Amino acid sequence: MQEISQPPLTATTQVLADVFDASPIGIAIENMEGQPLFVNRALCSILGFSEDELCGKHWVQFSPPEDAAKDWALFQQLRAGLIDHYQLDRRYFRRDGSLMWGRLSLSWLSICPSPLVVAMVEDITEKKRKEEIWFRHSAIVESSQDAIASVSLDGVIGSWNPGAKRIFGYTESEVVGKSVNVLLPPDLLNVEDKILETLTAGRRVDQFETVGVTKSGKRINLSLSISPIKDSTGGIVGCSGIARDITEQKLAEDRLREYERVVEDSEEMIAVVDRDYRYLIANRKFLEMRNMTREQVVGRLVHEVLNAGGSEALVKEKLDLCFQGEVVRYELEYTYQMGKRNLLASYFPIEGVKGIDRVTCIFLDITDCKMAEASLRESEERFRVVADTAPVMIWMSGTDKQPTYFNKAWLEFTGRALDVEQQSGLTAITHPDDLERCRKIYCEAFDSRSAFKKECRLRRHDGEYRWVLDNGVPRFLPDGSFVGYIGSCIDVTDHKLAEEALSNVNRRLIQAHEQECTRIAQELHDDINQRIALLAVQLETVKRDLPASAVQGRRGINQALECVSNLGSDIQALTHRLHSPKLE
Fold first, then answer.
1. CB within 8 Å of 525: residues ≥ 6 apart
2. What's the CATH class of domain 144-245?
3. Sign of CA dihedral 335, 337, 343, 348
4. Tell me, what DSSP letter sits at residue 299?
5. Can you list the positions of beta strands (E) in 145-289?
6. In a structure prediction context, what are the per-residue pLDDT tens digits for the chain, which is 584 residues long?
7. Fold for domain 253-365?
8. In the CATH hierarchy, which fold is given to the domain comprising 11-124?
9. N or C of the chain: less Cβ packing under 10 Å?
């Protein structure tokens, strides 16, 4: 330590020494190298070191490097005569290792023969802490999306943050110094008096919902939280308020309540979940499925309600997909009051003010449907077994008139695979001369939902066209809805050939019969009839040769002639009947 000659104490110097030692501000006398020579009790108390400990170190050793560097740079300017004093807020190490803030004021000490400096350190740790808190609070207030303002007890606005401008539309200069009533609709001006009464009684106002009015005159829903502002004596001098615009939230709540009323009577199980995986709505059918009360579901988390050993993770995965904008459907097996049932779960995202914030979950009991499908599959399988063993060709078509099924006999007839047959159908194998007629019959039957029957020629796998008799009937479900046609085709080619052969035989028989009748008629006409005519001539000759006295003989011959004439007429008529000109 540098030795400084001590001048004899006088009454004045003694007073100065007493003041130095009694000062509440920490003081140190340093040489031009920054070495403490004298320190007072206040500085020792502030830092927690003894006088010898402080004077045994260089002054930069009591601060973090960055603070010491700033101080030392200014000290060099002072020593060079560029400045004669400076002031700096810097941190100091206490003996216990903690940091405190001190306001350092350093200047020349010109009363000593050797150049010295006096350093005064004021403890501003608490002040810095309050400033930091104030700055933090200010940053929060400035960056808050909520409206934050202060109001005096007489209802005058004292401060106004950007959030308040965003919500109400007023700038700070437009409302500070004006009555808070400018933010209230005329029918709610008494709200201010009630709030001030609550605050003057020393109580807070938390989450109070009311209505405000913006600069444009628009009414908005607000949620207010208001606290009293007190002075240093504890007296209430005003209040600070936080207002949140909950207009969209109220609309969403109204929509949610309306939605809840709509879904309550639905026969489907419906619930609504928010982004926190918490149930907002659960309708009657959903509660019945869970066998729970509304209080046990609404407001609780999904995993708390499900409690189903593993399904919670699956549900959360599906919900996350919905929150990403996807519509999710999946089947699950679940046991509830009706026993083990199959459910179809459908999750639909709901768009809110800030994007997708809810998911509607709809559960449909499809157990009976699944059983019906299984029964239908079993029935269809039995049908296919029967159809494939049937000796006729069977086809089916849907409501779009396109073929959906062909049995084994049909595929063997055409020699094509089922998928090929479904794509081309009857058009590719129907004889061109029959195609248009068959298409017309088929379409007219579809339009009238009636049975039809048609004969046509179909090309077999070997290229030969075969005559088939196609019978089609409409198909209907139990509820009466039309689902298409089913038909069977029988190969009638041999029957058609047999009919044609029989027709030829009959024609030849008729021709032979006609020829025989013609022959008989000719014989009767040309032979028998002529012989009878000759007999009549002979009888006439005999009659002429008889004597006049043979009256009895003449009478007999006349009778014979009459009989012969009648017989000739009868034979003539018979020949006409056997060989009629009309038949020719």
1. 571, 572, 575
2. alpha beta
3. negative
4. T
5. 147-152, 157-160, 205-213, 219-230, 236-245, 269-274, 279-282
6. 344 444 555 566 667 677 787 788 888 888 888 888 888 888 898 888 988 888 888 878 888 999 989 989 999 898 888 888 899 999 999 988 899 999 999 888 766 667 888 889 999 888 888 878 777 776 776 777 888 888 888 888 888 888 888 889 999 889 888 888 888 888 777 776 777 777 766 677 777 888 888 998 888 888 888 888 877 777 888 888 888 888 887 887 787 777 778 778 788 888 899 999 999 888 888 888 888 898 999 999 988 887 655 677 888 888 899 989 888 888 877 766 667 788 888 899 988 767 888 898 888 888 888 887 777 778 778 888 888 888 889 999 988 888 888 999 999 998 988 888 888 777 788 999 999 999 999 999 988 999 999 999 999 999 999 999 999 999 998 888 898 999 999 999 988 888 777 776 667 777 766 776 676 767 666 667 677 777 777 777 776 777 766 666 767 777 777 777 777 777 777 766 666 555 55
7. Beta-Lactamase (3.30.450)
8. Beta-Lactamase (3.30.450)
9. C
List the CATH code of the domain at 391-491: 3.30.450.20
Q: What angle do CA 142, 143, 144 make, to 5 degrees?
A: 95
Mutual angle of helices 529-545 and 551-578, in 10-degree steps: 170
DSSP per-residue string spanning 520-539: HHHHIIIIIHHHHHHHHHHH
Q: Which residues fall within 8 angstroms of residue 515, CB to CB, at 6 or more apart?
A: none
If residue 201 lies in a helix (H) or strand (E), which one and from where to where? none
- Tell me how crowded residue 509 is: count the other CB atoms within 10 A of its CB: 10
